[in-house]
C-alpha cells in the first residue's frame, strides 16, 4: 500500500518538528540557541564558528559551536558543511574535509580544493 506524500502548508510547525523528535527541550539553552543558528544558515552561504556563537548571543563560543557540531549535527540534522573557520578556511581534515568541499560546491559556494572559501561581500 502506497502512502501519499504530504505537502507542508503550515510552515510555523517546521521548527518545532525537529525539536520535538530529538529531545531538543532537554538540551541547555545555549546549546539550543547554537543549533537554531546553525540550522538558520541559508543554502549557498557559510558562517564561521565565531559568527554562530555571536548570533546565539554568546561570547567566545567558537569551540562550543565546534563541539555541538561534532556531537549533535546528525541527530539534529544540522548543515554542518556550512560552518567554516573565521579565516574562511575549512577546519576539518581528511575525508570529512573532502566531503565538506563537495557539499559546498553542490550549493554553488566557491571553495578551493585546499578548503579556502570565497565569502560573499556584505552590501
From TrEMBL:
Keyword Transmembrane helix: no
Origin: domain of life: Bacteria
A family per Pfam: DNA_binding_1
Keywords from the UniProt entry: DNA damage, Methyltransferase, Transferase
GO molecular function terms noted in the UniProt entry: methyltransferase activity
InterPro entries, sorted: ATL_DNA_repair, MethylDNA_cys_MeTrfase_DNA-bd, MethylDNA_cys_MeTrfase_DNAb, WH-like_DNA-bd_sf
Annotated protein name in UniProt: Methylated-DNA-protein-cysteine methyltransferase-like protein
Organism in which the protein naturally occurs: Lactovum miscens
Amino acid at each position: 500500500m502506497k502512502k501519499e506524500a504530504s505537502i507542508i502548508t503550515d510552515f510555523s510547525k517546521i521548527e518545532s518538528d525537529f525539536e520535538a523528535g530529538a529531545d531538543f527541550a532537554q538540551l541547555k539553552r545555549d546549546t539550543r540557541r547554537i543549533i537554531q543558528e546553525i540550522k538558520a544558515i541559508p543554502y549557498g552561504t557559510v558562517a564561521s564558528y565565531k559568527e554562530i556563537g555571536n548570533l546565539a548571543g554568546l561570547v567566545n563560543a567558537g569551540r562550543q559551536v565546534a563541539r555541538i557540531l561534532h556531537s549533535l549535527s546528525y541527530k539534529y540534522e544540522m548543515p554542518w558543511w556550512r560552518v567554516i573557520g573565521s579565516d574562511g578556511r575549512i577546519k576539518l581534515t581528511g575525508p570529512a574535509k573532502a566531503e565538506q568541499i563537495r557539499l559546498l560546491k553542490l550549493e554553488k559556494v566557491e571553495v578551493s580544493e585546499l578548503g579556502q572559501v570565497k565569502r560573499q561581500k556584505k552590501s
